[in-house]
Write the structure tokens for this entry.
Amino acid sequence: MSESYPGEMDGIEVTACTACPELCESRSRIVNGTGPTDADLVFVGEGPGAQEDEQGEPFVGRSGGVLDEALRDRGVARGDVRITNCVRCRPPENRDPKRGELANCKGHLAVELRETDPDLVVTLGKVPSEHLLERSVAVTKEAGDVHDARVGEEQYRVLVCVHPAATLYDRSQESTLAETLDEAVALAGFDDSADGQSRLGDY
Ligand code: URA
């Protein structure tokens, strides 16, 4: 089954897209997901921030540091998971992506998830949780809950998680993030003996 999407894709990479006029203005580049294309575990964030826009990779700023460290603490290397976003272009002044922008980019995410076919999708924060579950979500309250959600033609197991950045301004979120990632690692079947070194090398 093929999903429809604006712009052009090469496999799971968006190579060109002008669907969102404001994002075309604000972005320096399209920020595609990174990580194995057959990852068991996929993290979905909101959209690129300044660092991500500059480097062309999701979660490379401060919240990426929090995510990397939390994964490492559980014996999982960044290179063992796939990391992507609801929208692939940086919104102006780091505002939330608008409804239409999320909708425009959903087909890209559907292709990425369909091709990756993960055991588990983890939504990092309110925007991706609401986008995939298609309802309002009280993330702190619902963190750790697992739901089935349809993206494109396929159904996925989705685990709600707080955004890593939340721990930077609210220390009480650290344990919520930690417990949810414990659950993610277990549900995705990561071996407890993993050592935090990528098993897949650089890609
Ligand atoms: N926050 C997100 O939601 N995504 C990123 O890529 C970086 C920060």
Summary: The mean pLDDT is 94. Residues 8-189 form a domain with the Uracil-DNA Glycosylase, subunit E fold (CATH 3.40.470.10). The pocket of uracil is lined by residues 45-49, 52, 58-59, 61, 63, 85 (CB under 6 Å). The CA atoms of residues 24 and 68 lie 29 Å apart.
